[in-house]
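quick one before i forget lol
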Amino acid sequence: MSKPEDRKAPNRDAESYEGRSARALAMGGTEKLARRKAVGILNVRERVDALVDAGTFIESGLFGVSGTRPEDKDKPAAAVAAVTPAKL
């Protein structure tokens, strides 16, 4: 017989998904979006709308995150993206 906490797991997963979705769709929050708009920067949804015809874009990767490590945030991109060539 399953335990009561096991029966609650799907609800926790759904709540977690809904919360993560809401945070992702908020794009950093209203204050961040307002600051960017004030200096003329379009948010990602506005940029996509400008690039594609309505109804032709399917979003995937809603939970994607930046690959930047906190310790690299102040380094120039070239310093972070150092590449070691493969030995042939």
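fyi The mean pLDDT is 78.
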